[in-house]
Amino acid sequence: MESPLFGKSTHNTILNEVHEGMRVVDRDGEEIGTVRRVFLGAVSDEIHERGKGPATAPDPEIRDDSLFDNLAEAFSADDPLPEALRGQLLRQGFIRIDSAGLFASDRYATPDQIESVSDDIVRLNLAKDDLIDRS
């Protein structure tokens, strides 16, 4: 029996319900911003070949992307995230949130931090200040 990729069975499917432009609110209903990017996660080549893991579909208007290209584009070159944290986000998947406010930096939420997705709103299970921040 294979172990699941994530602790809860909904983790790898909840990101499939999220799309760019959705509003994001924290556990108290406070507006955080909007979804800027959804990355479903990546797995090893072996798991990918078996079709057992999440994969972010390439943009059809961009060149013929490989899995490596998709991983490289998951973060912009100016993201100050530590390498270990980048690796964790790439494996688990994430949403990048364009934070509301003039000087607010983007934030990241992992699948296990998403409480629900409905009515074009992503509701998180933690406070805004507990999210991973780009700054």
Number of helices: 4
Characterize the main sheet.
7 strands, mixed
Secondary-structure content class: alpha+beta
- The portion of residues assigned to helices is 10-25%
| Strand elements, count | 7
Order of helices and strands: HEEHHHEEEEE
The general outline is: globular
Q: How many discrete domains?
A: 1
The proportion of residues in beta strands is: 15-25%
Kindly provide the radius of gyration, computed on alpha-carbon positions and rounded to a whole number of angstroms. Answer: 15 Å
Q: Strands across the major sheet, in which order? A: 5-6-1-2-3-4-7
Distance between the termini: 41 Å
Assembly state: single chain
Estimate the mean pLDDT confidence: 74
Q: Regions with pLDDT < 50 over 5+ consecutive residues? A: 1-11, 57-64
Task: Explain what this protein looks like in three dimensions.
With 135 residues, the protein is of the alpha+beta class. Helix content is 20%, strand content 24%. The protein has one domain. It has a 7-stranded mixed sheet. A hairpin with a 2-residue loop joins strand 5 and strand 6. The longest helix has 10 residues. The N terminus is likely disordered.
